[in-house]
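G., the chain you wanted modeled:
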Amino acid sequence: MSCSATGKDNCKCTYTPDCSRKGNCCQCVAYHRGKGEATACFFTPAGERTYDRSLKHLMLDRRIFMN
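Predicted structure as tokens:
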């Protein structure tokens, strides 16, 4: 699988503009997967702004979004 950077302007993460992984989806997914987390792009905008990347929070965020 190839992976190219999407660019910082297209990244949905608002955590920090200084993140070395910002705009590089493969690096971001690998980093968060290694911590048992999901990436910002899986969350709703409100869920992403909490900076809680836990899988539990993702399920709650998506459940609320779908209702």
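The CA atoms of residues 18 and 42 lie 20 Å apart.

Shout if anything looks off.
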